[in-house]
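U., I forgot to send this yesterday:
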Amino acid sequence: MAMEKYQNESCQLLFRAMLALRTEQECAAFLEDLMTQKEIADVAQRLLVAKMLSEQVVYTKIVEETGASTATISRINRAYNYGTGGYKTILKRVNEET
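Result:
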């Protein structure tokens, strides 16, 4: 699993902090303090690309709608299909909430 490479105090603190967030407002405030607007936008774009890939949307449509490069889409596709399952887990849980 992916956890082995994150067995240090700083990573574990980050994971616990993320798990402690209770609302979208808390999450937004934490991310704004933690990252730049560009970094937040980049992470959000990656998640949207993963969502669209899970819905079988073609690359050209993803590029058009998200502005992501085909290289970025390909990297996310590889992680989505062959990675640790993080994208699939979070997308499933988000879909269950709506």
